Amino acid sequence: MTIDMRVMIGTKTIIDDQVSKIIINLVNTNPKAVLGLATGSTPAGVYAALVNDHITHRTDYHLIKTINLDEYANLDTDHPNSYRTYMNNHLFDHINIRLEHTHFPDSTPFVASFLEQHPVNLQLLGIGNNGHIGFNEPGTPFESSVRLVSLSDDTLSQNARYFETPDQMPKKAYTLGISDILKVHQIILIATGPHKARIIKQMIEGPITPQLPASVLRRHPDVTVYLDHDAAALLDQSLDIYTKGGVALDIIA
Ligand code: F6R
Questions:
Q1: What is the CATH number of the domain that holds 161?
Q2: How close is the Cα of 1 to the center of ligand 1, in Å?
Q3: Burial per residue of 112-128, b for 16 or more beta-carbon CB atoms within 10 angstroms, e otherwise
Q4: Domain residue limits at 120
Q5: pTM of the entire structure?
């Protein structure tokens, strides 16, 4: 029996705690690790837990490097809605990471050579309501690598809430590609809230298809999906994939 994916179901508090501990353990055991990071509402609790841990235990990030999944194009890096600003506010300004070790995909050749020289040890992912990972929208070929993309209408409406008026939101972004994401050693995807339940069910129980980019993660050898009870609500736990193999499902709290 082969396990395609581990799925952990718990409260948001337990998820933030467990995922932050995995990252802290990696940083302590491999002080030069490369972390692949995401923005959005999903990972904010994990970053808060990392900041708390740094204040309490002085976990040392001074040799750690990071690369974020995506960044808007044609938006100043110090704009309040840039992903650089998000990362500085949620994490980088509160731990002892060197800002010159933190990277965003703002030019394709730079990121391609960075990833070649610095394989990512652990990638943190959220998932869009349409199944996107990074800004790899439905229909993106699994072979795609880092590039400039036009954001889908779904994503534009999902993210417009962060801008004062919807027309201020950039229509293009740089994103790591699906093939870049599949090259990392370990992947953790988190999904919370009832609005993620439908896409999570399709990602885990439906076909692996470019129409749902996150479904490709089932082909990666080391993926753990953390779901709160709302995001897991539509999973049919009597299916063979859970009872006879394919997905290892664990209730953590
Ligand atoms: C952000 C990113 C996106 C988000 C996704 C979910 O860097 O790569 O794919 O992970 O849009 O966003 P939230 O967490 O706000 O629901």
A1: 3.40.50.1360
A2: 32
A3: bebbeebebbbbbbbbb
A4: 5-251
A5: 0.96
